[in-house]
Write a structure and sequence with these properties.
With 282 residues, the chain is mainly beta. Helix content is 13%, strand content 41%.
């Protein structure tokens, strides 16, 4: 009994010593300069009447890994395809826009995006990529084991041309597709939401034409995101898009200006022909 009491007392003393040595230490998170984030997916509706012109724009914000995301409204200038974009419709929102004719964007060639933010200049190149009209969108039977909602889309792929698609199933749900196995054929793609969508909800499905680079970018972004995503929210990791910092690229005295690997903006700029259809969930 005495031996048992001794062991208990010794254990309590050891626990007291361990607790008395605990000390709260404040660790400052590593500081990181905020990065510019560009939501630059420009969706061009080829069926839009001409005129009126399309109101298109770019959403920009500024982010820090530890301080969260805040609007970036101090752009010195932003131009797209030579037109100056302004946030006059909703000042302070970070959404810069202007009126474009769909015909002008469909003429091909580069659609350059240029941004001046603080003391930095950024450049991105977006080529108009064709899509395919949506034949039909309908509600599938879903998953028999869960109360999930299924939406099915059908479209005819263009023959003899390598096509990449980004499909927006609404509610922050995206899927990519390549016509490697269905070139020139009618393709059926099914998407099952991870939950049941309430009856009466209107779903807007968009089929966008994208290039290989954006296809690869979106695949990585979707893989990183396990839940619903805003297309250009701060990625789980720093995923590099096509927004290039060109601040010193024309400075002959700055010899390593093309090797600023860590000095870039987040997000992506793309100009995509987009076809849409809506569906009422039953």
């Amino acid at each position: 009994m005495k031996q048992f009491l001794f062991v208990v007392l010794a254990t309590l003393q050891l626990a007291f010593l361990i607790l008395s040595c605990e000390e709260i230490v404040d660790i400052d998170p590593p500081a990181e300069e905020p990065r510019l984030v560009v939501d630059g997916l420009v969706r061009v509706d080829p069926l839009a009447p001409l005129p009126p012109p399309l109101r298109l724009g770019i959403k920009v914000s500024e982010t820090s890994a530890f301080l969260g995301e805040v609007p970036a409204t101090d752009l010195k200038q932003i131009t797209m395809s030579g037109l100056v974009l302004q946030d006059s419709a909703n000042p302070g929102s970070g959404f810069y826009e202007n009126l474009f004719t769909a015909r002008a964007l469909r003429q091909g060639g580069d659609n350059l995006l240029q941004i001046q933010h603080k003391d930095q200049r950024y450049l991105a190149r977006g080529v108009y990529v064709h899509s395919a009209p949506i034949d039909t969108v309908y509600q599938g039977d879903g998953n028999s084991f869960n109360d999930n909602t299924e939406v099915v889309i059908q479209f005819k792929d263009s023959i003899n041309r390598q096509n990449f698609y980004l499909i927006d199933f609404d509610n922050g749900q995206y899927m990519t597709s390549s016509d490697k196995l269905y070139d020139g054929k009618t393709q059926t793609i099914s998407f099952i939401y991870d939950r049941e969508i309430p009856s009466g909800t209107e779903i807007t499905v968009s089929l966008m034409g994208i290039d290989r680079s954006f296809y690869n970018y979106m695949n990585k972004l979707i893989e990183q995101s396990k839940e619903e995503i805003d297309l250009f929210q701060t990625p789980v990791s720093t995923l590099r898009g096509n927004i290039i910092n060109v601040t010193e690229i024309d400075n002959i005295d700055f010899f390593d200006n093309v090797d600023q690997f860590n000095n870039f903006a987040l997000g992506y700029y793309a100009v995509a022909e987009t076809f849409t259809k809506t569906l009422i969930i039953e």
